[in-house]
Amino acid sequence: MDEILRVRDLKTRFFTEEGQVNAVESVSFDVRDGEIFGIVGESGSGKSVTALSVIDLIESPGRVTGGEVWYRNADLADEFREKRSEAVDGDFVDLRRLPKGVRRSLRGPSFSMVFQDPMSSLNPSITVGEQIAEAVEVQRRARANPRSTRSRTQGYGLGKYLVDSIVPGREYTSTESKERAIELLEQVGIPDPEARAEEYPHQFSGGMLQRAMIAQALAGEPDILVADEPTTALDVTIQAQILNLLRDLQREQDMSIIMITHDLGVIARMCDRVGVMYAGQIVERGTLGDIFENPVHPYTEGLLGSIPDLEDPSPRLSPIEGNVPSLLDSEMGGRCYFADRCPNAMEACLNSIPEYDTDSGEVVGDGANAEAVHTARCVLATREFDAAEALGDDYFGDRAEASDPETPDDAAEQEVVSDA
Ligand SMILES: Nc1ncnc2c1ncn2[C@@H]1O[C@H](COP(=O)(O)OP(=O)(O)OP(=O)(O)O)[C@@H](O)[C@H]1O
Ligand code: NI
Fold this sequence. Notes:
The chain has helices at 47-54, 74-81, 100-105, 128-144, 149-152, 160-165, 175-187, 193-196, 206-218, 236-253, 264-270, 288-293, 298-304, 397-402, 410-419; strands spanning 3-16, 19-32, 36-40, 62-72, 88-89, 92-94, 111-114, 224-228, 256-261, 273-278, 281-287, 355-357, 363-364, 375-376.
């Protein structure tokens, strides 16, 4: 299977008053044709920012500061082969090196996104059918005039971006678009789509709204659909229905999906391959089998500690002791970011850890071993755990407590850490 997307060494920072937040730190992964690639991790691990970085939707004070996003598109590659040879590799273009207008023009026909909350994507004062018809119309205009960035920058089912471009109360721009909108509503399993198209978002149930948002996202027939926690807000039965819908659509349309979730049950059910995120990094990635049956990173093992049951939505990820670290640059040590929560932390984990091919133990990066299927940012990819080198349970314990204002001996304990 060929890749449609190759993300390499992506870095995204937020420049905030508190300091620089390293939300995405050297993230690399591939998405193949017709697959569902899952990104899983605790809240704040950088899943959403990773996806937004790939499709160029990071807003100030954030910025993608490094890395490459190679997207397979023969037409674009031909167009830029001469003009910007450094942005072209075979049939791939590096989106980060293309003009912004061109990148924007890919929203809809190349990339589209569905979010957790449909109301963030749909305008309450416009009928559902009209909104989808508008997405279709924008797409249609764009296709008639491929490099007109003006018409192509407007939305493409990208939620609020689309809403911004819609004039409330406007009629369907053409009967063709209206028909296509109804077709899309039918395709996402909305019964009686002709009548439902005339209704406003508040007349839809949560599940139906989510379907409508998916219909809107499909208007441009994207190559890659990014689904960010698309079912988190829904009750379990509806959740299962929406997941099935996404999987069916992915097969029918032969698109690829990047599925973002903190729910390993969703991953197990949907995904072909998975990236496990922690503190802005992909700490392990591989096939579903690699991750579920042969995990290398203790963080992955920790997450697997309690796989939530789709029938029982309450437990999400297994609660691993400790907290997600601050992603502030100043507080990121040059060590494995998970070491302070890791049951198997060794002295070697106090160095910064590259991504390893778990089969060969070789470092993946800078183009080397990029094709590795199962990787882990963990020394355990290269060697066995050795109790003689273990850091001991309280190695980071003092530091963790030091940040807790209720701990009485803060100062004293901090001393201990800095001596260590
Ligand atoms: N606009 C912003 N300004 C500053 N920091 C931000 C901004 N957006 C995200 N971040 C930070 O980036 C990090 C990653 O956030 P992100 O939303 O990607 O996490 P996530 O894995 O998607 O979590 P969740 O499951 O809660 O959605 C967090 O530390 C977050 O605080
Ligand atoms: Ni998120």
